[in-house]
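ok, trying the design again with the full structure, not the truncated one.
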């Protein structure tokens, strides 16, 4: 059974998890309770804890990656050590777009008990998990280095990035309105990004911050001294403490 002990690296903000009531206003800053909007950086002694049995984590890798592209086995091992079952979900990236990746993940998701399934992903994998969560509403959503490829991100991107992903994928990303899509996220959401990663790729840090402010059931963790690598020692330490 997953448990948690000890402080985590940096929790940018901790919010109580409250299910969104149907018909309520979209996520946004609180005007009735301004203190709720205050961002704090402090040790965190809370976690996602369960008493109803093992959860299965469906983990999606980064763009054009497989289980051997980086030390994903270390990431899987870290999650497994906390009492979860992990299923690595390989994606066919070749000549496909975001809707294709989501469909592949949904096909795997449908093989599992929704009440015990967590969607997780790194980089493009986190974007894929996010989009699948909108339709499937998993028990939790873990976004590691959440990719900034939404309609409001594209104009800010370097041309070399867009050329690298291709016209079809870029056009598909242009159709993704994060503000609208995020309203459908009802589950507990954990968002992590690296401190060094955000310095090198500011859009990733910005997207993580925006996601946290928008998704009311979220927790945001900035991992000290970690780059864009979910298998980084510091990244793994923060994951271990958070889940």
């Amino acid at each position: 059974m997953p448990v948690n002990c000890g402080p985590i690296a940096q929790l940018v903000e901790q919010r109580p998890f409250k299910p969104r009531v149907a018909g309520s206003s979209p996520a946004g800053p609180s005007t009735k309770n301004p203190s709720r909007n205050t961002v704090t950086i402090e040790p965190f002694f809370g976690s996602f804890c369960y008493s109803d049995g093992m959860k299965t984590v469906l983990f999606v890798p980064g763009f054009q990656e497989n289980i051997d592209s980086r030390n994903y086995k270390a990431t899987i091992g870290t999650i497994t050590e906390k009492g979860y079952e992990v299923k690595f979900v390989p994606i066919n990236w070749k000549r496909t777009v975001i809707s294709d990746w989501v469909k592949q993940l949904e096909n795997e998701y449908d093989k599992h008990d929704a009440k015990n399934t967590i969607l997780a992903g790194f980089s493009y994998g986190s974007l894929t998990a996010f989009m699948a969560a909108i339709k499937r509403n998993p028990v939790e959503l873990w976004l590691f280095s959440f990719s900034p490829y939404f309609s409001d991100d594209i104009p800010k991107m370097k041309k070399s990035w867009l050329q690298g992903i291709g016209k079809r994928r870029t056009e598909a990303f242009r159709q993704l309105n994060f503000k609208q899509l995020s309203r459908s996220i009802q589950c507990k959401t954990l968002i992590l990004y690296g401190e060094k990663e955000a310095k090198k790729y500011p859009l990733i840090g910005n997207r993580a911050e925006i996601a946290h402010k928008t998704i009311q059931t979220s927790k945001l963790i900035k991992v000290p001294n970690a780059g864009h690598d979910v298998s980084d020692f510091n990244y793994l330490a923060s994951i271990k403490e958070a889940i």
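Keeping the full-length input from now on. The first strand starts at residue 11 and ends at 13.
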